[in-house]
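User: We ran a pulldown and think these components assemble together. Before we commit to crystallization trials, I'd like a predicted model of the whole complex to look at. Sequences follow.
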Amino acid sequence: MFVIITYDIGHKRVGKVCKKMREYLDWTQNSVFEGEITVGALTKCIRELHEIMNNEEDSLYVYQINNPKHIKKTIHGQEKCPIDLFL
Amino acid sequence: MFVIITYDIGHKRVGKVCKKMREYLDWTQNSVFEGEITVGALTKCIRELHEIMNNEEDSLYVYQINNPKHIKKTIHGQEKCPIDLFL
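Assistant: Here's a predicted model for the assembly, 174 residues in total across the polymer chains.
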């Protein structure tokens, strides 16, 4: 399964959230992770994220596409690379 | 067709980019627009965005899913609403 996770997390927690998501997916742009993942790994990832998140303030959307052939991604302008996450 | 657009735009241009995208799609979270759109409208939207963007600095990803049934969205924490775009 292919997933896109977009997030809007309080600045005190965003570092930990990114660190956790990097265990499972690829950072592709500010506020966006994506990649292939199993249902089990996604469930575990989300459970661990909930332990970090403040559900009253933070926002995290998970878009799941079962067949990667059903989604097409086009890049306009710059393609951000993981190192940008630390700049 | 359903699309998700994620963006990382220089602060001088992000306001104009958001204003333009609101003509076509729904703002759902910082750096994320989504919604149903025709191929023609998406082509026009992207062309107009390129007139605003600085391709050397800005980054914009367009995820296209032809059949909205092929994507499932789950929300964790807060669901941001369009008014948050102005806070």
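The longest strand of chain B covers residues 2-8. That may be worth checking against your pulldown data before setting up trials.

User: Thanks, that helps.
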